[in-house]
From TrEMBL:
Keywords: Carotenoid biosynthesis, Isoprene biosynthesis, Magnesium, Metal-binding, Transferase. The keyword Cell membrane does not apply. GO terms for cellular component: cytoplasm. The keyword Glycoprotein does not apply. GO terms for biological process: carotenoid biosynthetic process. This is Geranylgeranyl diphosphate synthase. The gene is LOC115995463. InterPro entries: Isoprenoid_synthase_dom_sf, Polyprenyl_synt, Polyprenyl_synt_CS, Prenyl_diphosphate_synthase. Belongs to the FPP/GGPP synthase family. It comes from Quercus lobata.
Length: 369
């Protein structure tokens, strides 16, 4: 993957200042195409958390001592972290959406909710909560709520009136198994239950924080978030004048907003300060856009079998994508920069506690399906 030529990246204004939310000062994304504006929210550039400097000359004895201490310290295992958190999330989801009457609707809800998936959003929620001093148990109801809403969005997105897809996570889509009517209701039920679950099941957290978290989650999926991105996406099909700024609006809302909610909910419930919450909000926006850029790349470079969903459907629908507007190589460069900018936002946090978020960002950047 080639390095980005920074002289070709241009600064632009922000599109994503949404009313009613606490926002950081706007800043510009530097884009890998000349004279093409795109925008996002950020803070002043900081050094990546993985960068360290030594300002003093170490003696040979000091160096040996540090090497011994380094060797004795356990390293972060992303594979182990993912396995443990995914297992915890799956158990929580299994428990909170049980099979009861009416069985048909609960079968449909569980079919999509428990169909696997990477559980990236719940993990981000838990990792953000733990980063600011919270615990997995505090974040788990919110993590499950975000996954329920994400599943709802997939069920509805696959419907014939939307993206009309027959395959999701390697299995027939919900409406192919249960019918369009039940699939719509299954999504509705998951959406409603998500808010009930976070309100009723979150324990050990002041009510004001829970209310704030519920408000964040609601905004992320309404006309300031997921719904806004989805409707603009639908209205953009077949248009020939869709540019990068327009495309970014779609994905900052349709994809990034829910990822942002996952991280911000964890930070709020974990007791993060205003500054910590906003830094993590910016981190989440970067990885949210990164997620979509990578998704667009995979859609044209991988098979349906590799992806577990229909490949090339954006090309067939004549949708604007990053590879279509920028090309594959520039899209990859853009993804690299988004990942770096995301990790810059973690500067100042405890590196050990930030390790899961750094690893999750790298996973999103390098995933293959």
């Amino acid at each position: 993957m080639s390095c980005v030529n920074l002289s070709t990246w241009v600064q632009t204004c922000s599109l994503f200042n949404q009313a009613g939310r606490s926002r950081s000062p706007s800043f510009q994304i530097l884009h890998p195409l000349e004279n093409i504006p795109v925008s996002i929210i950020s803070q002043k550039r900081r050094r990546p958390i993985s960068s360290f400097s030594v300002s003093a000359v170490l003696t040979k004895q000091d160096t040996l001592r540090e090497e011994e201490e380094s060797e004795s310290e356990p390293t972060f295992s992303f594979k182990g972290y993912v396995a443990q958190k995914a297992n915890s999330v799956n158990q929580a989801l299994e428990a909170c959406v049980s099979l009861k009457d009416p069985k048909k609707i609960h079968e449909a809800m569980r079919y999509s909710l428990l169909a696997g998936g990477k559980r990236v959003r719940p993990m981000l929620c838990i990792a953000a909560c733990e980063l600011v001093g919270g615990t997995e148990s505090i974040a788990m109801p919110a993590a499950c709520a975000v996954e329920m809403i994400h599943t709802m969005s997939l069920i509805h997105d696959d419907l014939p009136c939307m993206d009309n897809d027959d395959l999701r996570r390697g299995k027939p889509t919900n409406h192919k198994v249960f019918g369009e009517d039940v699939a719509v209701l299954a999504g509705d039920a998951l959406l409603a239950f998500a808010f009930e679950h976070i309100a009723v099941s979150t324990v050990g957290v002041p009510p004001a924080r829970v209310i704030r978290a519920v408000g964040e989650l609601a905004r992320s999926i309404g006309t300031e978030g997921l719904v806004a991105g989805q409707v603009v996406d639908i209205c953009s099909e077949g248009l020939t004048d869709v540019g990068l700024e327009h495309l970014e609006f779609i994905h900052l809302h349709k994809t990034a907003a829910l990822l942002e909610a996952a991280v911000v909910l964890g930070a709020i419930l974990g007791g993060g300060s205003h500054e910590e919450v906003e830094k993590l909000r910016n981190f989440a926006r970067y990885i949210g856009l990164l997620f979509q850029v990578v998704d667009d790349i995979l859609d044209v470079t991988k098979s349906s079998q590799e992806l577990g969903k229909t490949a090339g459907k954006d090309l067939v629908a004549d949708k604007a994508t990053y590879p279509k507007l920028m090309g594959i190589e520039k899209s990859k460069e853009f993804a690299d920069k988004l990942n770096k900018d995301a990790q810059d936002q973690l500067s100042g946090f405890d590196p050990k506690k930030a390790a899961p978020l750094i690893a999750l960002a790298n996973y999103i950047a390098n995933r293959q399906n």
